[in-house]
Amino acid sequence: MVQKIKQLAKQYLPVLTEIRHHLHAHPELSFHEFETSRFISSTLSGWNITNTTMADTGIVSLIEAKNQSKRIIALRADIDALPIHEKNDVTYKSKNEGIMHACGHDVHTTCLLGAAKILNELKDEWEGTVKLIFQPGEEKNPGGASIMIKEGVLTNPKPEAIAALHVHPGLEAGKLSFRSGLAMASADEIYITVKGKGGHAAAPHLTADIILVASQIVVSLQQIISRNNNPFTPSVLSICSFQGGNSTNVIPSEVKLMGTFRAMDEDWRYKAHTLITRQVINIAEACGAEATIKIDVGYPAVYNNENVTTDAVQLAKKFIGEGNVEETDLRMGAEDFGFYAQKIPACFFRLGVRNEAKGIIHNVHTSNFNVDEDALETGAGIMALLGIELLVNN
Questions:
Q1: Disulfide-capable partner of 127 in 69, 202, 248, 308 (CB 3.0 to 4.6 Å)?
Q2: How many CB atoms lie under 10 A from the CB of residue 66?
Q3: DSSP H or E segment with residue 35
């Protein structure tokens, strides 16, 4: 089966490259992927693969093998793009000004479409059912995964496991990497508003000087991480926006702060929310100001099931050779795939797309990000193999 999948993935690479070029040239923002959704549905239908729409722009499809069994595996790809202006000088450059597939979701979608084509062509030779999930809105809270789950994507039928890949610009094309257990952090957004009496900079004693108050809040919040979190459990709190004042001699009456909080432990995550809120409000009050805070709860940590990941790693080694399979570093980045992993056993892994000889070296979420498209062959092939053989022996 491995050799058949390899042959088909190689045979379909020109088709996959064309699909990726179309998707890359027509990116759409989170929850507005209407043309992308239509393209995915049309492509699947053109291959005689039935599909339905979910969560407005999501696409779900079932590929049932001729030899039925209770084994049901889900494969997921995200389809949205980012509000980034593309600087790549390529024929398939984004045609939508200020929007770009800078996180590789065009690659993820292409690989899953490729896997669908392979699975459908070989459906007389494997057992079970594969559920294909093309998911909107990964880049924006509340995350398309949470909406798809609420609308029943993990029911009727319920998969026994789910897998997804993500481009890795630090890993050479043709390689894959996996990590068992905790793989990525949760991510929550923090919005703080500090208010107080403003006035002339020459008379700070007549004001609350909320620039100073807000500065104390920013500095003191770091103590929540350094003095309350278990140092053996990674956690990050970063204030990334400080907005207040527009003059050299006027103390403003309002300052707005924005930031992100990330954690690997759910108990600590919500305990930290309480500590952050209390510290912000109390510091402002102690300084004669007032503060409001909103913590927008985002994605949970991504936890890769040990059994599913071990099986996926062994299949990857069969597919591309042991020397091409590595371990993914623990990351404080976040992914709404964590919502799926909370519900069913999951495996989220990385697809190498780097090629220094071709100048493909830029990171995700940058205007020069691109991929070595030979990676599409690896991505489509491994997704098809997981759909056919993941947990077959468990």
A1: 69
A2: 10
A3: helix 34-46
Query: Look-up: residue for tokens 């059912």?
Result: 129
Is CATH 3.40.50.2300 the classification given to domain 186-299? Answer: no
What pLDDT shows up at residue 44? 98
pLDDT at 309: 98
Per-domain boundaries in the chain:
2-183+301-389, 186-299
Residue with tokens 């990000």: 369
Strands 181-184 and 302-304: antiparallel
Residues in the chain: 394
pLDDT value at residue 166: 98
pLDDT tens, position by position, 106-145: 999 999 999 999 999 999 999 999 999 999 999 999 999 9
Token pair in block for residue 53: 């729409």
Q: Which residues of the chain have pLDDT under 70?
A: none
CA distance 389 to 383: 10
Query: Cα separation of 105 and 111, whole Å?
Result: 10
Amino acid 310 reads T
Q: What is the pLDDT of residue 257?
A: 98
Tell me the C-alpha distance between 105 and 293, whole Å. Answer: 33
Scored b (16 or more CB within 10 A) or e, 242-264 reads: bebbeeeeebbbebebebbbbbb
Determine the pLDDT at residue 70.
87
Catalogue the E-assigned strands of the chain: 52-54, 58-64, 67-78, 127-135, 161-172, 176-178, 181-184, 186-195, 199-200, 235-243, 250-251, 254-263, 290-299, 302-304, 325-327, 346-354
User: Which residues are known catalytic residues?
Assistant: 299, 373
Determine contact, residues 354/176, Cβ cutoff 8 Å. Answer: no
Exposure string of 10-26, with b = 16+ CB inside 10 Å and e = fewer, is eebbebbbebbbebbbb
Task: Indicate yes or no: pTM above 0.85.
Answer: yes
What six digits make up the tokens of 304?
């890769």
Q: What percent of the chain has a predicted confidence (pLDDT) above 90?
A: 98
Which burial class, exposed, middle or buried, applies to 75 when counting CB atoms under 10 A from its CB (0-12, 13-18, 19+)? Answer: buried
pLDDT of residue 69: 82
Query: What class, spelled out in words, does domain 2-183+301-389 have in CATH?
Result: alpha beta
| pLDDT tens by residue, 208-221 | 999 999 999 999 99
DSSP for 107-145, written as a single string: HHHHHHHHHHHHHHHTTTSSEEEEEEEEE--TTSTT-HH
